[in-house]
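Table S5 (text form). Sequence records supplied for joint modeling of the two-component complex.
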Amino acid sequence: GAGVSQSPSNKVTEKGKDVELRCDPISGHTALYWYRQSLGQGLEFLIYFQGNSAPDKSGLPSDRFSAERTGGSVSTLTIQRTQQEDSAVYLCASSLVSGGSAGAFRYFGAGTRLSVL
Amino acid sequence: KQEVTQIPAALSVPEGENLVLNCSFTDSAIYNLQWFRQDPGKGLTSLLLIQSSQREQTSGRLNASLDKSSGRSTLYIAASQPGDSATYLCAVWDTDKLIFGTGTRLQVFP
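The corresponding structure-token record, covering 227 residues in total, follows.
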């Protein structure tokens, strides 16, 4: 596709359930990033993939959060046993390469709004 | 640990005013700095990217400057319009991740 695609756009779940959020990066982009934006909070980094590996997962808030990327393309962010504080907008971004060069320009998806009741 | 702060947190102005949004960061060892716009319920739109070797970038009514030594960036919006109403975020490129500021919520009224 032309841009970064995230699904679903909205997800309502009950406390304690598991959820999976999907990100389809721009074709050919080797780097993929997940961010979270909670109400009243800034955008916080969760995890970054280079290919299928995650060199930096320092932002994952707890062991209930995990992410994987397969085939150097699609990524799934999984939240187990969801809690109300997990309610947020989860944004995905991809870039052609990682690092600080212009090729590392991140393109963001529209996000998944997660509401945990 | 890099921290990014934006001032003011919110701003409400009449149409036509020239605006200055401020972004400061604690660690000057950054690659680049980027300004984004976020509309309610929407994703991020990149406005300007200032690369490490540059001091400013311009696009239309927007001008962003970067002073790495003092840890500051400024976004200047000329002749503001109601359509400029949004949240403006600055982000520093720190190795392989962006570190975002807390944002400035701008409202421009007719």
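Note: The two ends of chain B are 41 Å apart (CA to CA).
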